Amino acid sequence: MISLLSFIFAIGIAVLIHEFGHFIFAKRAGVYVQEFAIGMGPKIFSTKKGETTYSIRLLPIGGFVSMAGEGIEFDVEVPRERFIQEASWINKFLIFFMGAGFNFLLAITLVFGINLSQGVPSNEPIIGELVIDGAAMDAGLKEGDILLEIDGTKISKWEDIAATIDDQILVKIDRDGTILEIDVTPIYSEEGERYYLGINSSTEINIVKSFTNAIMSTFDSIRQMFVIIGGLISGDIDSKHLAGPAGIYQMAGRAASAGIISLLSFTAFLSINLGFVNLLPIPALDGGRILILLFEGITRKRINEKLELRLQVIGFSLMIMLLIYATYNDILRFFQ
Predict the structure, then answer these.
(1) Whole-number mean pLDDT of the chain?
(2) Contact yes or no for 272/266 (Cβ under 8 A)
(3) In whole angstroms, what is the distance from residue 230 CA to residue 243 CA?
(4) pLDDT band at 113 (very low <50, low <70, confident <90, very high)
(5) Of the listed 19, 35, 70, 308, which one is catalytic?
(6) How many C-beta atoms surround the C-beta of residue 258 within 10 A?
(7) Is 86 part of the annotated catalytic residue set?
(8) Structure pTM?
(9) How far apart are CA 244 and CA 239, in angstroms?
(10) For range 3-29, the mean pLDDT
(11) pLDDT digits (tens, 9 = 90+) for 202-213
(12) How far apart are CA 144 and CA 14, in angstroms?
């Protein structure tokens, strides 16, 4: 039950924010919006306010904002000037882009809040939390120790530590004004292919650093997504690592079991992924529609609406096949 509730919470928040980005900019541009939906499939709740129906649907795996001009039948006669095709170029761009834009803003907001509550890592060479049964704890290092030297190399900032770790090191520390030298045997990780001391940096509560760290962390996650996509295309990353709804369900459950901070971090991660994937230049996704919009802006010619709808159907079919493949991977991982 915890896994299910965590899954609904994480994906629900990410989808809600994404669709709200589309919705608010469509309304701002005067585009007619018939329905704002969270979830897919049959409606389980709906209410109408003004001209728009707000609904929750059975399957918590997506959502949509149905706008005039998207090939959908409407309950009322909609003036042509309220079709999305009639919006200005910049308004259409904002409508398509701000779904992902709001996802990135959500991630920044969540990480900023986490940083304010937990603190941001300090670059000062001061030992924070120790890994239980790690090399540093076994050797007798303590939280609050100031690292001065490792094997004779001076340590002035936290980043200097990684470059000095080997299989056997002599650590000089300042512990409450007393200088000590301690032999440490770092633990080698096959997965990370490096030695680890088993220490974390100290943290500090700082609004500016918390906000800056949130922005940098979000952009670093986006950069990592580019690396992953490139790896999938080149074959360096096996496509069987792709996760579908079942995989996300399992990850949400594991995150929730580690506590609310972990769940919020996972929600931020999921929001970044949702925004990034939607910006891929694939028909039916926001990125595909932005690509068409850029083509129209360059050529000064509007693409045929029927052709655009066909491209969206093709893109949607490809996404369904990819979803089925990812779900197949989830099932294999479950039995393994």
Answers:
(1) 86
(2) no
(3) 17
(4) very high
(5) 19
(6) 11
(7) no
(8) 0.80
(9) 12
(10) 92
(11) 888 889 999 999
(12) 38
Greater confidence, 17 or 228?
Answer: 17
Residue 224 to residues 143, 189, 221, 269, 273, Cα–Cα distance (Å): 32, 22, 5, 11, 10
Tokens of 113: 């809040």
- The candidate with the shortest Cα–Cα distance to 127, out of 76, 198, 214, is 198
Give dist(CA 31, CA 256) in Å, integer. Answer: 39
288-300 per-position pLDDT tens digit: 889 989 988 888 8
Distance from C-alpha of 69 to C-alpha of 80, rounded to nearest angstrom: 8
Residue with token string 């094997």 = 151
Question: In the numeric block, which tokens belong to residue 98?
Answer: 């701000």
- Residue 332, pLDDT > 90, answer no
What would the 3-class secondary structure string for the chain be? CHHHHHHHHHHHHHHHHHHHHHHHHHHHCCCCEEEEEEEEEEEEEEEEECCEEEEEEEEEEEEEEEECCCCCCCCCCCCHHHCHHHCCHHHHHHHHHHHHHHHHHHHHHHHHHHHHHHCEECCCCEEEEECCCCHHHHHCCCCCCEEEEECCEECCCHHHCHHHCCCCEEEEEEECCEEEEEEECCEEECCCCEEECCEEECEECCHHHHHHHHHHHHHHHHHHHHHHHHHHHHCCCCHHHCCCHHHHHHHHHHHHHCCHHHHHHHHHHHHHHHHHHHCCCCCCCHHHHHHHHHHHHHHCCCCCHHHHHHHHHHHHHHHHHHHHHHHHHHHHHHHC
Quick one: which of 317, 318, 220 has its CA closest to 276? 220
Domains of the chain, earliest start first = 2-119+215-335 (no CATH), 121-204 (2.30.42.10)
What is the rounded average pLDDT of the residues 319-325?
Answer: 75
